[in-house]
């Protein structure tokens, strides 16, 4: 346990602490879905640090303490988290989630995020989506669904998000405080792309519902949108 809190790693400090052998979160017994999610959410950003400190109404303080003191703080301090720390969290999730396979089986990252954010910590949904003018949908992360695109051999995240929103006729109802995106490259059996280039910034202008945008013909405020 590391009981002192550390800020997220940035720039040269992130490279120094996180690069090399025995760095990151140690995998064990199909934990990769959780290891990758936890690393993405906490290693280099503080946007979800409220999960570690805030006493939410439904919050399980034991799970919160494990997440903060055994995983996030060691990751930010030394760049390494032992597999037994993640297993400790998985055991607690198994106990709280009415699912006996959290300690042994590979899971969908969305299932893990929904369990820990909604059922255990009681956090409000991070995303509001609308599809084809229907009712709003609340969720914690967005999983990219799309058909195979022959022209996208090594895509970046920006391209994948835009293609996925377009093919699903989706819009963001509002700018999200945190936009967690699950790539179409997980699981043992099938990966749609061999590699995906991270987009260091994401332009969501065209993904926002009723967002004023410039007409590509005349330059005035657009009144129509062609998919």
TrEMBL record:
Pfam families: UCH. The keyword Flavoprotein does not apply. Residues 24-204 form the Peptidase C19 ubiquitin carboxyl-terminal hydrolase domain. SUPFAM superfamilies: Cysteine proteinases. One of its GO terms (biological process) is protein deubiquitination. Transmembrane segments: none annotated. It comes from Casuarius casuarius. It comes from the Eukaryota. GO terms for cellular component: microtubule; spindle. One of its GO terms (molecular function) is cysteine-type deubiquitinase activity. Gene3D superfamilies: Cysteine proteinases (3.90.70.10). This is CYLD hydrolase. InterPro entries: Papain-like_cys_pep_sf, Peptidase_C19_UCH, USP_CS. It is found in: Cytoplasm, Cytoskeleton, Spindle.
């Amino acid at each position: 346990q590391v009981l002192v809190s550390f800020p997220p790693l940035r720039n040269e400090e992130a490279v120094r602490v996180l690069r090399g052998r025995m760095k990151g979160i140690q995998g064990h017994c199909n934990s990769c879905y959780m290891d990758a999610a936890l690393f993405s959410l906490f290693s280099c950003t503080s946007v979800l640090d409220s999960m570690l400190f805030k006493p939410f109404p439904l919050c399980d303080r034991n799970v919160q303490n494990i997440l903060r003191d055994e995983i996030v703080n060691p990751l930010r301090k030394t760049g390494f988290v032992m597999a037994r720390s993640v297993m400790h969290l998985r055991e607690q999730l198994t106990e709280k989630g009415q699912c006996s396979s959290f300690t042994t089986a590979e899971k969908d990252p969305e299932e893990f995020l929904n369990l820990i954010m909604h059922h255990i910590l009681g956090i409000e949904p991070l995303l509001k989506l609308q599809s084809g003018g229907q009712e709003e949908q609340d969720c914690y992360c967005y999983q990219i669904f799309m058909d195979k695109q022959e022209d996208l051999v090594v895509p970046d995240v920006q391209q994948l998000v835009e293609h996925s929103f377009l093919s699903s006729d989706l819009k963001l109802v509002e700018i999200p405080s945190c936009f967690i995106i699950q790539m179409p490259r997980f699981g043992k059996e099938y990966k749609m792309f061999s590699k995906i280039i991270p987009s260091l910034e994401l332009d969501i202008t065209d993904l926002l519902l009723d967002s004023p945008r410039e007409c590509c013909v005349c330059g005035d405020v657009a009144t129509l949108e062609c998919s």
